[in-house]
Design brief:
It is built from 3 helices and no strands. Helix 1 (16-36) packs antiparallel against helix 2 (43-63). The chain has a domain at 16-74. Helix content is 60%, strand content 0%. It has helices at residues 16-36, 43-63, 66-74. The chain is elongated and about 45 Å long. It is mainly α.
């Protein structure tokens, strides 16, 4: 078998807009993690933290694929407000 990487496992460089969006998402996830850590240790908290990590993993996967990167670049004029609440 050739050393070709399946499209399923290939990632593409993020544009600066897409990388900025990824950074903002990871920052918000870190804020949530800090809030979650104020809850007493439990299986539910552990699952919530795992699901948060999984969510960030999947959104970064979506941002690093060719199709999604193109979509994000097309809507890059929209701003994400860091201070909504």
């Amino acid at each position: 078998m050739a050393n070709k990487i399946s499209p399923r496992f290939k990632s593409y460089p993020m544009s600066s807009d897409t990388a900025e969006l990824s950074h903002k998402i990871r920052a918000k996830a870190s804020e949530l993690e800090c809030l979650y850590m104020k809850i007493p240790q439990s299986r539910a908290r552990s699952l919530a933290l795992t699901d948060l990590e999984t969510s960030v993993m999947w959104i970064n996967k979506a941002l690093s694929t060719k199709t999604q990167t193109t979509v994000i670049e097309n809507i890059s004029n929209e701003k994400i407000d860091d201070d909504e609440n």
